[in-house]
Write a structure and sequence with these properties.
Layout lengths: L2 H16 L3 H7 L4 E10 L5 E12 L5 E7 L5 H17 L6 E6 L8 H15 L8 E5 L5 H15 L23 H16 L8 E5 L3 H12 L3 E7 L2 E4 L6 H9 L15 E3 L11 E4 L18 E3 L8 H9 L3 E3 L1 H4 L2 H15 L5 H26 L3 H19 L4
Parallel strand pairs: 3-4, 3-5, 6-7, 6-10, 10-11, 11-12
Antiparallel strand pairs: 1-2, 2-4, 7-8, 8-9
Helix pairs in contact: 1-3, 1-13, 3-13, 4-5, 6-7, 6-11, 6-12, 11-12, 12-13
The structure holds glutamic acid (GLU).
Length: 415
Amino acid sequence: MAAFEYFKQHVAKASALLELSDDVQSKLMTPNRVLRAELTIPLEAGGTQTFPAYRVQFNNARGPYKGGIRFHPEADEDEVSALAAMMAIKCAVVGIPLGGAKGGVAVDPKKLSQKDLHLLAREYVKAFSDYIGPDQDIPAPDVYTNAEIMGVMLDEYERITGKSQPAMITGKPISLGGSLGRGTATADGSIEVLKALLEDRHLEADVLTAAIQGAGNAGGQAAHLLYSMGMSVVSIADSKGTLSSSEGLDIEKVLAFKEAGNHIPDAGSHMEGATIGASEDVLSAAADVLVPAALEEQITKENAESVQAGIILEVANGPITPEADASLCARGVVVIPDVLANAGGVTVSYFEWVQNRSGYYWSADIVREGMQTTMRKAYHAVASIAAERGVSLREASYALALERITEAMRGRGEI
Ligand code: GLU
């Protein structure tokens, strides 16, 4: 099923809880603007190539549109729309004054040179420059884009507009006005929410085990933090395979190996007691906490039954399909949903935007404290709705967000 359809299902459930009318529901399911372009660049290897590109501006009732840009071969209008919609939900859940948007280019970045990617980033900004900007729509990194690409996009935007505008994009390099703490904010925020949940349930981290799917920026940092909390990380996977040890892996060693340019399963031969499995094996690992930190639609109705974890922390966007979500819920598995779990990234993006606009830059401690307070407050607001209404944390997150978004839309006379 298509990603946008999943979003609609989540909205429909939460709308029933809030008793929203069909008319309001349909407004909440419709993007404000869908922008499309074809980006053509000369390739360093010779010839030219054209890539479809999108920017979907979903809802800006609570503030300027906000959301990342992904470079991924499967990026399409449906996926980008679903992710844009989820950004509006995410910003509302954590209570930051921003709306939701997302961008995507259908490209396999591994097949392009660095020079090609820079040109593509510039073409993206040229195509959509009339619609983005500090008060309109503020992009950020997402899957296969990073601080370097944000820096190039900022440069292109400033060339076009002829003025310094660091607040037009977040997740930039620190030297160009980026915020301290933004690089690790997604994983840092997710672990803060997990800590709040564990405290709520009187669970101690050092008696729990964890399995992590993904060893990139978010997965790697999550693994590092779980390990530092004393949790035993029994499995970690990248796209090439899963590395496991029931005794617990030496995560710092595994991550150092990955950072040196190797694949996760290849670390197996350097570690006593570690076993290697297929990439998807991590999802059924015998662990208390499962952290999907890779791509969408990883836990489906086909493999949901094999999940052994009692807690799932959705660091990736949309890793569980609605059918799988329902079956996990029915089994009593606690899912900390993406729109809450990974909102630390956009929270620190908001802090970056505030710093750029005020020209006053915060210390790493101030950023961290602000992020932790924001994430804990959001968790407690969601958890109390879930307890009061007897619903999942996902339904409670959507209900909280839709309440805040509809309040803003009502205030504007939009509904
Ligand atoms: N791409 C990230 C997300 O999905 C961050 C978005 C942002 O910082 O604007 O939440």
